[in-house]
Amino acid sequence: MDFKLTEEQELIRASAREFALKYLEPIAAEIDEESRFPMEVMTKLAEMDWLGIPYPAEYGGAGADYLTFALVVEEISRSCASTGFTLSATTGLVMNPIYQFGTEEQKKQYITPIAKGEKIGAFALTEPGAGTDPGAATTTAVLEGDTYVINGTKTFISNGPIADVFVVIAVTDKSKGARGLSGFIVPKEAGGISVGKHFQKMGLRASQTSEIIFKDCRIPRQNLLGKEGQGFRIAMQSLDTGRIGIAAQAIGILQAALDESISYSKERVQFGKPISVNQAIQWMLVDMATDLAAARFLTYYAADCKDKGLPSSKEAAMAKLFASEAVSRHASKAVQIHGGIGYVKGTKVERLMRDAKITEIYEGTSEAQRMVIAGNILR
User: Fold this and answer.
1) How many Cβ atoms sit within 10 Å of the Cβ of residue 109?
2) Which label site among 131, 179, 212, 366 has the fewest CB atoms less than 10 Å from its CB?
3) Residue 46, pLDDT score
4) Residue 310 domain-assigned?
5) Domains in the chain: how many in total?
6) In angstroms, rounded to a whole number, what is the distance separating the alpha carbons of residues 284 and 275?
7) Same domain (yes/no): 155, 170
8) 299 falls within a domain
9) Can you state the angle between helices 348-357 and 81-89, rounded to 10 degrees?
Protein backbone atom coordinates (compact mmCIF):
# COMPACT_ATOMS: atom_id res chain seq x y z
CA MET A 1 0.00 0.00 0.00
CA ASP A 2 1.32 3.43 -0.98
CA PHE A 3 0.83 5.96 1.80
CA LYS A 4 2.50 8.73 -0.16
CA LEU A 5 0.29 11.76 -0.71
CA THR A 6 -0.16 13.13 -4.20
CA GLU A 7 1.48 16.41 -5.16
CA GLU A 8 -1.93 18.10 -5.09
CA GLN A 9 -2.69 16.75 -1.61
CA GLU A 10 0.69 17.96 -0.35
CA LEU A 11 -0.01 21.42 -1.77
CA ILE A 12 -3.45 21.58 -0.17
CA ARG A 13 -2.01 20.41 3.13
CA ALA A 14 0.64 23.14 2.98
CA SER A 15 -2.02 25.71 2.09
CA ALA A 16 -4.14 24.59 5.07
CA ARG A 17 -1.16 24.96 7.41
CA GLU A 18 -0.42 28.43 6.04
CA PHE A 19 -4.10 29.36 6.38
CA ALA A 20 -4.25 28.14 9.98
CA LEU A 21 -1.10 30.02 10.98
CA LYS A 22 -2.35 33.24 9.37
CA TYR A 23 -6.00 33.28 10.37
CA LEU A 24 -6.44 30.91 13.32
CA GLU A 25 -3.29 30.81 15.42
CA PRO A 26 -3.56 34.54 16.29
CA ILE A 27 -7.20 34.33 17.44
CA ALA A 28 -7.59 30.76 18.76
CA ALA A 29 -7.01 31.64 22.42
CA GLU A 30 -9.27 34.70 22.16
CA ILE A 31 -12.27 32.96 20.61
CA ASP A 32 -11.86 30.12 23.12
CA GLU A 33 -11.93 32.58 26.01
CA GLU A 34 -14.89 34.53 24.58
CA SER A 35 -16.74 31.43 23.34
CA ARG A 36 -17.11 33.24 20.00
CA PHE A 37 -17.88 31.58 16.70
CA PRO A 38 -15.42 32.94 14.08
CA MET A 39 -17.82 33.58 11.19
CA GLU A 40 -15.12 35.55 9.39
CA VAL A 41 -12.98 32.42 9.26
CA MET A 42 -15.83 30.34 7.86
CA THR A 43 -16.14 32.85 5.03
CA LYS A 44 -12.44 32.45 4.29
CA LEU A 45 -12.71 28.65 4.41
CA ALA A 46 -15.49 28.87 1.84
CA GLU A 47 -13.30 31.05 -0.37
CA MET A 48 -10.68 28.28 -0.29
CA ASP A 49 -13.35 25.70 -1.34
CA TRP A 50 -12.78 23.81 1.90
CA LEU A 51 -16.35 23.66 3.21
CA GLY A 52 -17.33 21.13 0.57
CA ILE A 53 -14.04 19.39 -0.21
CA PRO A 54 -15.36 15.93 -1.23
CA TYR A 55 -18.42 17.14 -3.12
CA PRO A 56 -18.71 17.94 -6.85
CA ALA A 57 -18.09 21.47 -8.11
CA GLU A 58 -21.66 21.56 -9.47
CA TYR A 59 -22.85 21.78 -5.84
CA GLY A 60 -20.22 24.29 -4.79
CA GLY A 61 -17.70 21.70 -3.61
CA ALA A 62 -14.04 21.24 -4.49
CA GLY A 63 -14.46 17.85 -6.18
CA ALA A 64 -11.61 16.39 -4.11
CA ASP A 65 -11.59 13.29 -1.89
CA TYR A 66 -12.04 12.38 1.78
CA LEU A 67 -8.31 12.00 2.34
CA THR A 68 -7.85 15.62 1.28
CA PHE A 69 -10.74 16.53 3.60
CA ALA A 70 -8.97 14.76 6.49
CA LEU A 71 -5.71 16.57 5.75
CA VAL A 72 -7.38 19.99 5.86
CA VAL A 73 -9.29 19.20 9.08
CA GLU A 74 -6.03 18.02 10.65
CA GLU A 75 -4.12 21.19 9.82
CA ILE A 76 -6.96 23.51 10.84
CA SER A 77 -7.41 21.64 14.14
CA ARG A 78 -3.71 21.92 14.83
CA SER A 79 -4.27 25.65 15.36
CA CYS A 80 -7.94 25.73 16.40
CA ALA A 81 -9.81 22.53 17.22
CA SER A 82 -13.14 24.39 17.36
CA THR A 83 -12.84 25.50 13.74
CA GLY A 84 -11.57 22.08 12.72
CA PHE A 85 -14.64 20.49 14.25
CA THR A 86 -17.00 22.96 12.59
CA LEU A 87 -15.42 22.13 9.24
CA SER A 88 -15.69 18.40 9.95
CA ALA A 89 -19.31 18.52 11.15
CA THR A 90 -20.40 20.70 8.24
CA THR A 91 -18.88 18.30 5.71
CA GLY A 92 -19.64 14.96 7.36
CA LEU A 93 -22.87 15.41 9.29
CA VAL A 94 -24.75 18.09 7.37
CA MET A 95 -23.73 17.95 3.71
CA ASN A 96 -23.05 14.21 3.47
CA PRO A 97 -26.61 13.01 4.24
CA ILE A 98 -28.04 15.53 1.77
CA TYR A 99 -25.54 14.44 -0.87
CA GLN A 100 -26.09 10.72 -0.27
CA PHE A 101 -29.87 10.69 0.17
CA GLY A 102 -31.14 13.98 -1.20
CA THR A 103 -32.81 14.72 -4.50
CA GLU A 104 -31.04 16.78 -7.13
CA GLU A 105 -33.13 19.78 -6.13
CA GLN A 106 -32.26 19.33 -2.44
CA LYS A 107 -28.55 19.09 -3.23
CA LYS A 108 -28.54 22.31 -5.21
CA GLN A 109 -30.79 24.14 -2.77
CA TYR A 110 -28.89 23.23 0.42
CA ILE A 111 -25.37 21.88 -0.26
CA THR A 112 -24.39 24.76 -2.55
CA PRO A 113 -25.04 27.66 -0.13
CA ILE A 114 -23.40 25.76 2.75
CA ALA A 115 -20.32 25.03 0.63
CA LYS A 116 -20.15 28.68 -0.37
CA GLY A 117 -20.35 29.81 3.26
CA GLU A 118 -23.69 31.52 2.71
CA LYS A 119 -25.50 29.28 5.19
CA ILE A 120 -24.54 27.34 8.31
CA GLY A 121 -25.86 23.80 8.79
CA ALA A 122 -26.47 21.62 11.84
CA PHE A 123 -27.20 17.93 12.39
CA ALA A 124 -30.02 17.35 14.88
CA LEU A 125 -29.97 13.74 16.10
CA THR A 126 -29.21 13.68 19.84
CA GLU A 127 -31.98 14.13 22.41
CA PRO A 128 -31.97 14.33 26.22
CA GLY A 129 -32.95 10.64 26.36
CA ALA A 130 -31.45 9.46 23.08
CA GLY A 131 -27.69 9.68 22.64
CA THR A 132 -25.92 6.47 21.70
CA ASP A 133 -29.38 4.92 21.18
CA PRO A 134 -31.09 6.94 18.40
CA GLY A 135 -34.02 4.51 18.49
CA ALA A 136 -35.07 6.08 21.80
CA ALA A 137 -35.81 9.40 20.07
CA THR A 138 -39.12 11.09 20.90
CA THR A 139 -39.07 13.99 18.44
CA THR A 140 -41.91 13.31 16.01
CA ALA A 141 -42.70 14.24 12.42
CA VAL A 142 -46.38 13.75 11.63
CA LEU A 143 -47.62 13.98 8.05
CA GLU A 144 -50.68 16.20 7.66
CA GLY A 145 -51.64 16.39 4.01
CA ASP A 146 -48.54 17.59 2.19
CA THR A 147 -46.88 18.94 5.35
CA TYR A 148 -44.78 17.31 8.07
CA VAL A 149 -45.26 18.78 11.55
CA ILE A 150 -42.20 18.36 13.77
CA ASN A 151 -42.32 18.49 17.58
CA GLY A 152 -39.59 17.70 20.08
CA THR A 153 -36.29 18.79 21.61
CA LYS A 154 -32.80 18.04 20.33
CA THR A 155 -29.75 18.62 22.50
CA PHE A 156 -25.98 19.08 22.15
CA ILE A 157 -26.52 20.39 18.63
CA SER A 158 -23.28 21.77 17.21
CA ASN A 159 -23.86 25.04 15.31
CA GLY A 160 -27.38 25.02 16.80
CA PRO A 161 -27.59 28.71 17.78
CA ILE A 162 -26.26 29.93 14.42
CA ALA A 163 -27.64 27.35 11.98
CA ASP A 164 -29.69 28.32 8.94
CA VAL A 165 -30.65 24.75 8.04
CA PHE A 166 -30.98 21.54 10.07
CA VAL A 167 -30.79 17.88 9.10
CA VAL A 168 -33.27 16.42 11.58
CA ILE A 169 -33.86 12.79 12.53
CA ALA A 170 -37.40 12.29 13.85
CA VAL A 171 -39.91 9.53 14.52
CA THR A 172 -42.48 8.91 11.78
CA ASP A 173 -43.62 5.48 13.01
CA LYS A 174 -43.14 4.84 16.73
CA SER A 175 -44.16 1.16 16.44
CA LYS A 176 -41.03 0.35 14.38
CA GLY A 177 -38.39 1.63 16.81
CA ALA A 178 -35.18 2.61 15.00
CA ARG A 179 -36.79 1.59 11.69
CA GLY A 180 -39.46 4.20 12.28
CA LEU A 181 -37.00 7.10 12.10
CA SER A 182 -36.86 9.41 9.10
CA GLY A 183 -34.61 12.26 8.01
CA PHE A 184 -35.69 15.80 7.12
CA ILE A 185 -34.17 19.01 5.86
CA VAL A 186 -35.52 21.84 7.99
CA PRO A 187 -34.69 25.45 7.07
CA LYS A 188 -34.71 27.93 9.92
CA GLU A 189 -37.26 30.11 8.13
CA ALA A 190 -39.81 27.29 8.41
CA GLY A 191 -40.71 28.71 11.81
CA GLY A 192 -41.51 26.82 14.99
CA ILE A 193 -37.79 26.52 15.78
CA SER A 194 -36.19 28.04 18.86
CA VAL A 195 -32.82 27.82 20.57
CA GLY A 196 -33.00 26.34 24.05
CA LYS A 197 -30.16 26.04 26.52
CA HIS A 198 -26.83 27.28 25.18
CA PHE A 199 -24.08 25.02 26.59
CA GLN A 200 -20.85 26.47 27.96
CA LYS A 201 -18.42 23.62 27.31
CA MET A 202 -15.10 22.73 28.89
CA GLY A 203 -13.39 22.72 25.50
CA LEU A 204 -14.16 23.60 21.88
CA ARG A 205 -15.61 26.79 23.28
CA ALA A 206 -15.61 28.61 19.94
CA SER A 207 -17.94 25.94 18.54
CA GLN A 208 -21.52 26.85 19.42
CA THR A 209 -23.67 24.12 21.01
CA SER A 210 -27.28 24.29 22.19
CA GLU A 211 -30.67 22.70 22.49
CA ILE A 212 -32.98 23.13 19.51
CA ILE A 213 -36.71 23.05 20.18
CA PHE A 214 -39.25 22.24 17.48
CA LYS A 215 -42.82 23.25 18.24
CA ASP A 216 -45.34 22.71 15.46
CA CYS A 217 -42.57 23.25 12.92
CA ARG A 218 -44.12 22.75 9.49
CA ILE A 219 -42.11 21.74 6.43
CA PRO A 220 -43.30 20.62 2.98
CA ARG A 221 -43.42 16.92 2.22
CA GLN A 222 -40.59 17.30 -0.31
CA ASN A 223 -38.20 18.13 2.56
CA LEU A 224 -38.20 14.44 3.50
CA LEU A 225 -34.63 13.18 3.08
CA GLY A 226 -34.63 9.87 1.24
CA LYS A 227 -37.64 7.77 2.19
CA GLU A 228 -39.62 7.34 5.39
CA GLY A 229 -37.92 4.81 7.64
CA GLN A 230 -34.39 5.58 6.39
CA GLY A 231 -33.55 7.91 9.28
CA PHE A 232 -31.45 5.42 11.21
CA ARG A 233 -29.46 4.52 8.10
CA ILE A 234 -28.97 8.21 7.28
CA ALA A 235 -27.73 8.90 10.80
CA MET A 236 -25.34 5.96 10.94
CA GLN A 237 -23.86 6.61 7.51
CA SER A 238 -23.39 10.28 8.37
CA LEU A 239 -21.65 9.38 11.63
CA ASP A 240 -19.35 6.97 9.80
CA THR A 241 -18.23 9.84 7.59
CA GLY A 242 -18.05 12.28 10.49
CA ARG A 243 -15.79 9.95 12.45
CA ILE A 244 -13.07 10.29 9.84
CA GLY A 245 -13.22 14.03 10.44
CA ILE A 246 -13.10 13.65 14.23
CA ALA A 247 -10.10 11.32 13.96
CA ALA A 248 -8.40 13.96 11.80
CA GLN A 249 -9.29 16.63 14.35
CA ALA A 250 -7.74 14.51 17.11
CA ILE A 251 -4.58 14.11 15.03
CA GLY A 252 -4.33 17.88 14.61
CA ILE A 253 -4.64 18.44 18.37
CA LEU A 254 -2.09 15.69 19.05
CA GLN A 255 0.37 17.17 16.54
CA ALA A 256 0.03 20.54 18.26
CA ALA A 257 0.60 18.92 21.66
CA LEU A 258 3.76 17.25 20.35
CA ASP A 259 4.98 20.49 18.74
CA GLU A 260 4.50 22.45 21.95
CA SER A 261 6.09 19.72 24.08
CA ILE A 262 9.20 19.39 21.92
CA SER A 263 9.69 23.14 21.77
CA TYR A 264 9.22 23.66 25.51
CA SER A 265 11.39 20.70 26.51
CA LYS A 266 14.29 22.15 24.51
CA GLU A 267 13.89 25.60 26.05
CA ARG A 268 13.14 24.71 29.66
CA VAL A 269 16.40 24.38 31.63
CA GLN A 270 16.62 22.58 34.97
CA PHE A 271 19.78 21.53 36.79
CA GLY A 272 21.80 23.29 34.12
CA LYS A 273 20.43 21.48 31.06
CA PRO A 274 17.28 21.32 28.91
CA ILE A 275 14.70 18.89 30.24
CA SER A 276 14.64 17.26 26.78
CA VAL A 277 17.83 15.37 27.71
CA ASN A 278 16.00 13.56 30.49
CA GLN A 279 14.88 10.06 29.56
CA ALA A 280 11.54 10.53 31.35
CA ILE A 281 10.70 13.43 29.02
CA GLN A 282 12.07 11.67 25.95
CA TRP A 283 9.90 8.63 26.51
CA MET A 284 6.77 10.77 26.79
CA LEU A 285 7.67 12.46 23.50
CA VAL A 286 8.44 9.13 21.84
CA ASP A 287 5.10 7.63 22.89
CA MET A 288 3.33 10.76 21.68
CA ALA A 289 5.05 10.67 18.28
CA THR A 290 4.47 6.93 17.84
CA ASP A 291 0.75 7.12 18.61
CA LEU A 292 0.48 10.13 16.32
CA ALA A 293 1.93 8.14 13.43
CA ALA A 294 -0.38 5.18 14.14
CA ALA A 295 -3.43 7.46 14.34
CA ARG A 296 -2.52 9.02 10.99
CA PHE A 297 -2.23 5.67 9.26
CA LEU A 298 -5.57 4.47 10.63
CA THR A 299 -7.32 7.70 9.65
CA TYR A 300 -5.80 7.98 6.19
CA TYR A 301 -6.65 4.33 5.56
CA ALA A 302 -10.29 4.90 6.58
CA ALA A 303 -10.48 7.92 4.28
CA ASP A 304 -8.86 5.95 1.45
CA CYS A 305 -11.39 3.12 1.88
CA LYS A 306 -14.27 5.60 1.64
CA ASP A 307 -12.73 7.21 -1.44
CA LYS A 308 -12.47 3.81 -3.12
CA GLY A 309 -16.04 2.85 -2.26
CA LEU A 310 -14.89 0.10 0.09
CA PRO A 311 -16.52 -0.67 3.46
CA SER A 312 -15.29 1.96 5.90
CA SER A 313 -17.55 1.85 8.96
CA LYS A 314 -15.18 -0.35 10.99
CA GLU A 315 -12.14 1.51 9.72
CA ALA A 316 -13.62 4.91 10.63
CA ALA A 317 -14.57 3.64 14.10
CA MET A 318 -11.05 2.26 14.65
CA ALA A 319 -9.50 5.54 13.53
CA LYS A 320 -11.69 7.64 15.81
CA LEU A 321 -11.29 5.27 18.75
CA PHE A 322 -7.50 5.17 18.57
CA ALA A 323 -6.93 8.81 17.65
CA SER A 324 -9.32 10.20 20.29
CA GLU A 325 -7.97 8.08 23.14
CA ALA A 326 -4.40 8.84 22.08
CA VAL A 327 -4.91 12.61 21.99
CA SER A 328 -6.73 12.64 25.32
CA ARG A 329 -3.89 10.69 26.90
CA HIS A 330 -1.06 12.69 25.36
CA ALA A 331 -2.57 16.15 25.73
CA SER A 332 -2.46 15.47 29.46
CA LYS A 333 1.20 14.44 29.11
CA ALA A 334 1.91 17.70 27.27
CA VAL A 335 0.62 19.60 30.31
CA GLN A 336 2.80 17.40 32.51
CA ILE A 337 5.89 18.22 30.43
CA HIS A 338 5.13 21.93 30.78
CA GLY A 339 4.77 21.60 34.54
CA GLY A 340 3.04 24.42 36.40
CA ILE A 341 2.87 26.75 33.41
CA GLY A 342 0.99 24.07 31.48
CA TYR A 343 -1.82 24.25 34.03
CA VAL A 344 -2.24 28.00 33.65
CA LYS A 345 -5.26 29.17 31.66
CA GLY A 346 -4.20 30.67 28.36
CA THR A 347 -1.29 28.32 27.81
CA LYS A 348 -1.83 26.46 24.54
CA VAL A 349 -1.41 22.99 26.03
CA GLU A 350 -4.07 23.79 28.62
CA ARG A 351 -6.50 24.53 25.79
CA LEU A 352 -5.40 21.43 23.89
CA MET A 353 -6.11 19.22 26.89
CA ARG A 354 -9.63 20.67 27.23
CA ASP A 355 -10.29 20.33 23.50
CA ALA A 356 -8.97 16.76 23.35
CA LYS A 357 -11.46 15.15 25.73
CA ILE A 358 -14.57 15.69 23.62
CA THR A 359 -13.15 13.62 20.76
CA GLU A 360 -13.74 10.54 22.92
CA ILE A 361 -17.40 11.50 23.35
CA TYR A 362 -19.13 13.12 20.39
CA GLU A 363 -20.12 11.41 17.15
CA GLY A 364 -20.10 8.18 19.13
CA THR A 365 -18.29 7.60 22.42
CA SER A 366 -15.26 5.32 22.59
CA GLU A 367 -17.59 2.67 23.97
CA ALA A 368 -19.88 3.10 20.95
CA GLN A 369 -16.88 2.76 18.62
CA ARG A 370 -16.01 -0.54 20.27
CA MET A 371 -19.60 -1.68 19.70
CA VAL A 372 -19.32 -0.80 16.00
CA ILE A 373 -15.98 -2.59 15.66
CA ALA A 374 -17.21 -5.64 17.57
CA GLY A 375 -20.28 -5.84 15.36
CA ASN A 376 -18.04 -5.92 12.30
CA ILE A 377 -15.45 -8.46 13.49
CA LEU A 378 -17.99 -10.84 15.04
CA ARG A 379 -20.25 -11.20 11.99
Assistant:
1) 17
2) 179
3) 95
4) yes
5) 3
6) 12
7) yes
8) yes
9) 30
